[in-house]
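User: Show me sequence and structure for the first protein, then do the same for the second.

Assistant: Starting with the first protein.
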Amino acid sequence: MFALPLTLKTALRFSRGKKRGGMVSLISLFSTLGISLGVAVLIVGLSAMNGFERELVNRVLGVVPHGEIIPEQPMQIETNLLVNRIEASDGVVAAAPYVSMTGLVENGIHLQTIQIKGIDTDLESKISALPKFISDNAWNSLQPDKNQIILGAGAARSIGAKVGQSVTIIIPNSSADLKLQQPKRIRLQIIGLIELGGLIDHSLGLIPLEDAQSYLGKGQEITGVGLKLSDPFQARTQVKKAAENTRLSLHYNSWINQYGFMYNDIQMIRGIMYLAMVLVMAVACFNIVSTLVVAVKEKSTDIAILRTLGAKNRFILSIFIWYGLISGFIGTFIGALIGIAAALYLTNVINALEAMLGVEFLSADIYFVDFLPSELHLLDVFLVFTTSIVLSLVASLYPANRAIKLEPAKILSGQ
């Protein structure tokens, strides 16, 4: 059977001793609460950052092209030839041509600016997870020459349109000599909605590639080619190689230019949050110093008796280190339990608060998600737990060192 070390047993008796004053108990309580609060908040904060990172990967990197290769001028080229050259490049998983234009979607008196993208659904599904976020099986129903559009759910709500209803899109129009003419107005039926739950919902509409080319009157010209890469975080290098592999004069772009700031912000906030909460925990942990200093004074007679019985400095030192660690462990353990529970149910709690207060904390018009995501990582819990225990250990060293400097003879003689 496992037996506790004698130093730990002594520390437990000291921590429950009758002589423990009200002030010591109060300081110890605030120390424990401070540690618990810091640990819980840090676990919840790191879980929220993990959630944002997950949604960035799933809802942005999973949907938008990892890279784009764009001709200097809208080009008329054998699409299959261009796609094959790009896909032959190292790091490129798949490629899909597209036609992109900015337009207005109109429903009665309501107007909304959107990016209208003409796509080949078969090729686009190879580079994007967008079909998973489209309602009514509309992805498979999107066909050319049928005047159809898949509209972002946010854009549809802003103009009061629903699936099955027809809306008007207004797109730029120019003559052969590039002079602007009266915009084209095209009537399209909404066959499905993009339901990503974020900014893309408010800014995107999808139509067949052939229809987009027809509306612009540009024949078989394409605006660019979207790429899916084996490693999105090496996008700049891999997209550059793919562009060079086409042996054509092309521009190239990557998701890092458009959305990289989101990833960088998440990592920066994670670091700042960790540092701030560690400082909060450090302040709470160093309240242990006050607790132990008073405890050393109150237990000075007990220490003197232990020394006369032959206790070595290491024994006395271990007692008060254990004493401090007990307080730190209790606070850390309670905070970890609270933090884990809060992180697991954070999204549901915030959604309930939004419904109760009638407030939207994350607006889909601004952020790439309209809810507060959370994903608990056991590594984060371990890191926070370990940090808190180490801080408690450091805070225990000074009072423990004072305890071994007490002189038994003076204490027992009452001097």
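Switching to the second protein now.
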Amino acid sequence: MIRVLLADDQELVRDGFAMILDAQDDVEVVASAADGAEAVERVQATIPDVVLMDVRMPGVDGIEATRRLRAGGFERLGILMLTTFDLDEYVYEALRAGASGFLLKDVPRATLVDAVRVIAAGDALFAPAITRKLIERYVAGPRVSDAPPPELAELSERERDVLLCVVRGRSNAEIAADLYVSEATVKTHVAAVLRKLGVRDRVQAVVWAYETGVVRPGG
């Protein structure tokens, strides 16, 4: 079972998501919270696999709650941020704080359930085009240096290909088809890329690629 904690200051949102997720055979909502501080406490008490975390909440918001959870040792906890706005200025900060990805609150039921499963499997959700818009909006400034980042030299040519596919939001299956390799091989390459870049997951790898100028918005 995938254990899920819901953190949102709107009770109707929590109840609606709980109804959708509890209807799945492989998902169980184990707790809910009305703000970030309560979310941190409930995570410590229930040890869920995935947290659906609203970005904007009174008091301790989702970004700060995410920072506290990562700093508190919950590095492998899946944190899926939820937002009402397709260009929420807080989402990029949430990704930098350690979120595993994000969704709009008005996504179809099937998309919500699939997202929970993706995050629970240890992957990061970077498929939505809106995530690309956010990163392009916030890291489109000039590069600090024209020199390539030293980490890039650590990647093999194939690992660089895989990194570019990840930046484009391609899934493992899609990358495998693009590069004519198996999904198992893709997983191996992705793991190597993350390790060599010193990042936690695919989302952080994408942020790294844009911030270092390895990839330019629109390029």
